[in-house]
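Chapter summary example.
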Amino acid sequence: MDTSSLNTSSFLSLQGLGLPPQGMYAAFLFATLSYLVILFCNLFLMATIIMNKSLHQPMYFLLFNLPINDLIGSSALFLQLIKEILLDSRYIEASSCIAQAFFIHVYGVGSVLILSAMAYDRYIAICNPLKYSTIMTNSHIAKIITLVWLVDLLLIGVLFFLLLRLPRCRSLISQTYCDNPSLVALVCADTTINNIYGLFITASIQVFAVGMILYTYLQILLACFKSKRSDTKSKALQTCATHLTVFLILECLGLFTIISYRIKQLSPHLRRMIGVSTLIFPPTLNPIIYGLKTKDIRQRINMAIRKTVNP
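The structure predicted for these 311 residues follows.
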């Protein structure tokens, strides 16, 4: 594409992968296979929950939202990345860039909120088992899921409303994909409000999520130690270990990504790798971890595989 024909108000330039021409084939293969694996694993987990009535429980209704959210984030990244590699172009329409950034941030906030809601569900199930069925009714679960998505969309909607009101005078995105910090860097006006609101979202979501996890898991551990039934204790700890593993993977990658933006001396290539990893590893690992570690889901998957192999 002729750069002289670009209108900076309509097109933006992504930093690109920085690969030699012969490396683009490997990049295309890796991106395509990664996206297909993410699609297969998450859709398979969703289909398993939908098709098995024994999994139509509050825990799995909440879990069902996790692969939906993972597909939003991975699709926002990979569809644009694969298009960029195929067309050998680093240019993207401003509207497409903003849409990609919006859905990537919806994915980030949504992951934390969904995992927090799942921690609350496990807390009720283990610490108040006799009241679980009366508390976690279908209507209550529907309210929790609706609240999670509404809060997610509202927080990110305001973030991008604050961004879109500002004029843009630069066009080079410092990442291989679009996100809010990279778009704010293109603005030629005072971004103090944007920076404060961005930090507010990050801090409040982290305080809420980490506080929820610490409180619920402390109560769960205390309940497990008090319990005299070894089978109940083992099942509770296994379920919580699965949830905690997924949460820690997301938190570590998210923290590294946030810190990478604050360290100016960090290599741009390393910063881009950290950012992309947050959108690749959780969507890939989450359905695998839940499929292997959650007994009910593992049994249903094994039954589906046996029926396929020996119809």
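To summarize the output: Confidence is low (pLDDT under 50) at residues 1-7.
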